[in-house]
Amino acid sequence: MAPVLGLVGSSAGGVEQILPRLIEPLLERGWRVAVTLTPTAATWLDASGEISRIEQRTGYPVRWQPRLPGETSPHPPLDCHAVVPATANTVAKLALGIADNQALTQVCEAIGLGAAPVVVFPRVNAAHVRHPSWGGHVAALQLAGVHLVTGDDVWSLHEPRSAPGRELPWVTIVETIVAAVRG
Ligand SMILES: Cc1cc2nc3c(=O)[nH]c(=O)nc-3n(C[C@H](O)[C@H](O)[C@H](O)COP(=O)(O)O)c2cc1C
């Protein structure tokens, strides 16, 4: 059976490219992909018409709101979770277990369950990393077994607003997801 990725996108640079650069390569490898967005990311991708393109290509509704108590999830069971791109805000909330939107709810639960791998690419800058709480957030996620796609060779840190249009390390992200599921 094809593995299913639960892809969470938050409102950082590169979220506008998840369809061609992350979803398409995984679909070509035989994966299925079910997308959930943070509320701000949903606003951005809705404004550009990208949400309906993602829904057409993946065959699943894009989620950004919680279901009603009597409803069932419109997404299938997930074999892997990936938060790409992850804002500094979303990384901090994941580390603290704050689940105040649908995207965080599903990934916080996945981290706690430990049944499926969780891959996170923090699309952050040097100022985010200099925040006094950043090191603790990264340590908490690593301790929980989260696969963090970080490092100077993968994503060197730039100062705020100094890297517009910078490409995300898409190939490394795809390979990390595939390797995480292989185990
Ligand atoms: C154009 C634009 C680009 C942004 N890019 C980033 C980014 O690359 N990384 C980041 O951590 N925050 C970025 N932000 C800030 C986040 O969007 C903001 O902190 C937001 O509240 C995060 O919400 P979310 O984590 O729920 O998506 C950007 C904001 C704007 C307006």
Automatic annotation (TrEMBL):
Cited SUPFAM superfamilies: Homo-oligomeric flavin-containing Cys decarboxylases, HFCD
Gene Ontology molecular function terms on file: catalytic activity
Domain of life, per lineage: Bacteria
Stretches assigned to the Flavoprotein domain: 10-128
Name of protein: Flavoprotein
Provenance organism: Actinophytocola xinjiangensis
Classification lineage: Bacteria, Bacillati, Actinomycetota, Actinomycetes, Pseudonocardiales
